[in-house]
Amino acid sequence: MTPSSPESRAPDPFVRQRALTGFGAAGQRALSGASVVLVGVGGLGCPAAQYLAAAGVGRLTLIDSDHVSVTNLHRQILFGPDAVGRPKVHAAVGALRLIAPGVDVRPMLRRVDEHNARELLAGHDVIVDGTDTFAARHVIADAAAELDIPVAWGAVSGWHGQVTVFTRESRMRALFPEQPGEDLDSCEGGAVLGTLCGQVGAALATEALKIVSGTGSTLAGTLAVVDARTGRWREIALAPVREREDGRARA
Q1: THIF-type NAD/FAD binding fold domain spans which residues (predicted)?
Q2: Is residue 17 part of a domain?
C-alpha cells in the first residue's frame, strides 16, 4: 500500500457534503472555521446540534440551565433514559463527541438573560435559538441585534412549526414587538409532536450552515410555516425593518 493509495488516506466523513454543487472544499473549510452558539438544548436544539456537529462545524457552544426529564425523551433525541436528571448541556456533549469527535463542543450550564446575553453570545458567527419562551427569545434577539449576529430561529406548537432567520434587516422585534401574554409553544405541560421538533430543528441547522458557509439563500425576510398534519409548508413574507425614533425595530 503506497502513501498515496486510497486505502492509506484517512476516511473523510464530509466527502458527500463537499461534493454538493456550490459548496465544495471552500464551504467545508468555512464550516470548520465557524463558531455557532446554540441556546436551548431541547426539542429543537438537540437535532440542530446533532446535525451541526455531524456537518463539521468547528466550534459549537451549547447554553442551557435545564436538566433532562423523562418527558423530554420522545423529542430530545440526544438523550436516553440514563441521562435523566443530568444537565442537558453535559449529556449533550457526551453524545455529540461520539458523533463528531473532531468538533470543539463547549457546554455552558447557564440561563441567558438580559444581564449576560451579550457576553455569552459575542464572538460567534451565528446563533441558533432553540428556546421555548418569548422572554428568552426577545433577550437573545435583542442581544443579537446589538452584536449584529444572525439568528436561526424556530418554534413548535402542537402540529405546527415555524422557521426564519433574523438579521439586521429582519428582526424578531418587527415580527413580535412585545412578548405575548403566554408562550403558546412552550413545552412545559403542552402538547408537542416529537418528529416535528426534529423537522424544525434540522431546518434550523440548515439555515445556520448556509449562513456560515455562504451557500444558497437563507429564510431571512420569510417565515416558513409547516403543518405536520398535512406535511405542507407555506411561506409568509416579512416586512423589512425600519428604525423607530427610540432605536427599536418596527415593521
Answers
A1: 16-239
A2: no
Distance CA 158, CA 160 (A): 6
pTM assigned to the model: 0.89
Q: pLDDT tens digit string along 181-206?
A: 555 445 555 789 999 999 999 999 99
What CATH number does residue 31 fall under? 3.40.50.720
Q: Could you tell me where the DSSP H helices lie in the chain?
A: 15-18, 24-32, 45-55, 88-99, 117-121, 134-147, 172-175, 194-213
Among 125, 93, 132, 97, residue whose Cα is nearest residue 109: 93
Instruction: Assess if residue 133 is contained within a domain.
Output: yes
| 3-state percent helix, strand, coil for the chain, nearest multiple of 5 | 35, 20, 45
Q: How far is CA 129 from CA 1, 7, 85, 115, 243, in A?
A: 48, 41, 23, 18, 23
Question: Is 93 within the bounds of a domain?
Answer: yes
Report the DSSP pairing between strands 151-157 and 222-227: unpaired
